[in-house]
Amino acid sequence: MSFHLIDTHCHFDFPPFIGAETESLQNAQAAGVRQLIVPAVTADRFQGVVTLAKNHPQVFAALGLHPIYVSQHNDADLELLDSWLSSRDTKMVAVGEIGLDLYIDQPQFERQQRLLRAQFALAKRENLPVILHSRRSHDQLAAMLRQTQLPATGVVHGFAGSLSQAQAFVKLGFAIGVGGTISYERAQKTRNVMAQLPLSSLLLETDAPDMPLQGFQGQPNRPERAAAVFDVLCELRSETPEQIATALLENTRRIFSLPA
Fold this sequence. Notes:
Layout: E1 5-7, H1 21-30, E2 33-39, H2 46-55, E3 59-63, H3 75-86, E4 92-101, H4 109-126, E5 130-135, H5 138-148, E6 154-156, H6 163-171, E7 175-178, H7 188-196, E8 202-204, H8 226-236, H9 241-256
Helix pairs in contact: 3-4
Protein name: Metal-dependent hydrolase
Organism: Ewingella americana
Pfam family, one: TatD_DNase
């Protein structure tokens, strides 16, 4: 039985998808993955992501400045983001991918925080949800979210922290992104977190072409593999696949205001 699945985090504006969009979307559709949200990572990618959403009914856009490119971003990029968001159409569903990263060399953490605060202000003004990146920075990110009190919340994507860190985000109204990490037996901590969180707090994602699943290491990840992530999630949880699929769909539509 094929469910209606949504890949809430797919970098569809990167290879291997460039020039193969129609075929890639057909493959995803065949696996039950019927819609994708594509978050931008740098200002020079905004136009491409918006165009993908315009050209493909099943693709939705999010625009933001990713923390791992902190040394590239500047004030002009923030102004560009501001103008795209203020003149957006219904296919632009979030501000993202934004967040904090203490894993990279030379994180320039104060600058990351300043950029994030500026993007939170835009999300707040536009009443848009946020797609959040967080590596080794969950506690700092949760503190910033408490301070900001975003009206439309969002998702902490690719989550691999502790249960208590996940619960802190859930308490603030944020969803947790479930990706290919759970396909690895050794990722017991993350698997346990996804098994224990309330179903109403989970979203499905791939982070394609990144975060390959078990058995696909060294290959680009693809949106159709959201179906394999879903299968693993069903093994980890006590609810039926029907209940899980329904909840994931409802959660995604609620957070991102996607059309039915």
